[in-house]
């Protein structure tokens, strides 16, 4: 996919989000909840973050997509995730797995593999997390074996689905100096999946939007604190001109 066509498609998909306000139900870690909800709102989507075992099924019942993030797992959280994924799969709505810190504990790794067996549409993690999950396979082989899209973020974001691969180098080092940028990125992917006919294109659009917003934010901030706010402002202000001027694809 060329940079110009990615920018054009991302702008069109973001317009759809701003018109439709899809609701993304997020089972995410306590560190990332507020920033993730704000990033979704800044893009034009609607977040819901309820994570209780008692209510999660009702919330996913009316949602357009689901995010499952393993950042601060505990047993009730694991149960809520199993219930939420059950509803998402029954309804056929896409869900995204963010395997935060999967390499840090064997229990988390086992749980991540349990969830992966239930068919996430997208797995988005940083390079270390994706390398751990793919156990030394090339990530395109990993994606093909799962029938999922795999996104490995970092200095360059890499996206594969087994047949296609794209690298998006947009972004800024300050994105690595604020917590939950990756968690929010996975939520943006979930949002874009709800409006994209081609999920690969939706994922690429989310990663481009995040990277371009990061570049714009860096020009309007003086460090991580102001960067986080400027990032939300930049997501809110994204348009086809900004995306087209800055989009890079490798
Ligand atoms: N050095 C960098 N240059 C450009 N973009 C970056 C850089 N570091 C991170 N990013 C961007 O930041 C976002 C988050 O990616 P990262 O790989 O840091 O996620 P993460 O480790 O899962 O973060 P977290 O767990 O804190 O939410 C992505 O959009 C990525 O492109
Ligand atoms: C810092 C941190 N610890 C658990 S989750 C999280 C947010 C980044 O993934
Ligand atoms: Mg992460």
Which labels suit this protein?
14% strand; UDP-N-acetylmuramoyl-L-alanine:D-glutamate ligase; 250 residues; alpha/beta; binds magnesium ion; binds 2-(4-methyl-thiazol-5-yl)-ethanol; eight-stranded mixed sheet; binds adenosine-5'-triphosphate; 8 strands
Mean pLDDT: 98
Task: Assign the CATH class.
Answer: Alpha Beta
Uncertain spans: none
Largest sheet: 8 strands, mixed
Number of helices: 11
Secondary-structure element string: HEHEHEHEHEHHEEEHHHH
User: In what order do the strands lie side by side in the largest sheet?
Assistant: 2-1-3-4-5-6-7-8
Strand share of the residues?
A: 5-15%
- What is the gyration radius calculated from CA atoms? 16 Å
Ions, cofactors and other bound molecules: adenosine-5'-triphosphate, 2-(4-methyl-thiazol-5-yl)-ethanol, magnesium ion
Structural class: alpha/beta
Topology of this protein?
Layout: H1 3-20, E1 23-27, H2 33-43, E2 46-48, H3 56-61, E3 65-69, H4 75-91, E4 95-98, H5 106-116, E5 122-126, H6 127-134, H7 139-146, E6 149-153, E7 157-160, E8 165-168, H8 181-193, H9 199-218, H10 224-236, H11 240-246
Parallel strand pairs: 1-2, 1-3, 3-4, 4-5, 5-6
Antiparallel strand pairs: 6-7, 7-8
Helix pairs in contact: 1-9, 2-8, 2-10, 8-9, 9-10
Bound molecules: adenosine-5'-triphosphate, 2-(4-methyl-thiazol-5-yl)-ethanol (TZE) and magnesium ion.
